[in-house]
Amino acid sequence: AARPDSWTAAPAPGVLVMEPTSRRREGLKSLSRWQRERRQRALECVRERRQQSREAQLEARRLASPGAREDAPSAAAVVQREDEDLPDAEVADHILSKISSRSLPRQGSKRYRDSKRHHASRLLQLEWLIDVPEDLHTSWFVVARPEGPRCLVVASNGSTVTRKKNGAFHKKFESGLPNGSAETQTSTRSGGAETVLDAVFHEPTKTFYVTDCVQWDGYSLADCDFEFRMFWLSQRLPSAAEGGSNVDVGQDFAVVAAIAQPADRDAIARAYAASGSAGYATDGLVFTHRDCPYSARDGRPTPLCLQWKDSRCSRYPIDTDDSGVVLERQAVVLEVQRDGRSVGTGDDPPVVLGSIPQDFAERQNGLLRPGMLLRFELGAAGFTFGPEGRPVGASLELKGVSGARVRGDLLSRILFQHLSRTRQVNYDDLVREARMEVE
Predict the structure, then answer these.
(1) Angstrom distance (rounded) from CA 262 to CA 141
(2) pLDDT tens figures, 305-317
């Protein structure tokens, strides 16, 4: 299918409308195949990386043994050379992680924007469920997501700081987490051992429901599988399912674990109906593969952690405005690409859905910059799909600039919202016996 690049002026002044030049359409089956193939590739990469890690550990032990050749490089030397070869971006991330949360940068400054982007990149990007995994009932976990903003919880230097999904400062308090208060501080070094958690803040109960553990008292769990991270959390935090409360020194906010369970039919049914029994309002379900690492460092969304919701388990299954009213047309946030004209999703690599007309871009006097986020509405013509089932264009109407976000919408989120208005994967699909599709 040809890439859509035909734009026309809309009746309203200053508004642009893009219509796809091709009308080829694919069904939900093609979209499902696209996500399924990405999920399989992600699992292969995880297993390959862990095999390489095991081989490296065995080699380090061999070199450290008394029988190793004297001229062989030591494990410490190998580690040192690996650190020296780290990309500059990872070195910068390491340096930024040592910045004390006590010295928050001034809002609006470049340092503030860089700080937001850094902290936002520490949160794992979840995709949205378009295809029901064939091994959903045997290899995945499920948890009812609490209603509220997702947060990064960082306990260090005797205080606990939380940040929103876009990296902006959220709250600062003392908690019972390691290094989260003066009473629980285990490290006196500036930028020392951290405890980093992925959580959802439930405002009515002033509770942080922890859904994943990235680091605990300086020990990284990011490369551990999800099943182990859930076990770790269950041993160190009170569980929301057991009515637990914070085991800290009596601060203003509770920190409890929302432990995911193996996603068999009964567990999915309990999570689906958990809004009244979990102690909090739910906002859909989150499915995570048992082998999923917390690989947020590369900034890529993972198809091994999937969100899903409908009108029964969420008050807002479809995007709403600030007053809670469902939007008449689907809203999409896309990012201006390096050429200064193409607009694409927040995926890595991004999926380009259109191109801004050259004459319009020139009239902006350089205001359109790579990385800028623009708000669009999806038109009636919807998407244009390529042969592999991935959208290659869309009917888009430019509405303005998005200033609060740090990245564009993921393609899976755009498609999920589109399907929610048309032909969504429903609850029956989740509990039905999974069968391998015969191509």
Answers:
(1) 4
(2) 999 999 999 998 9
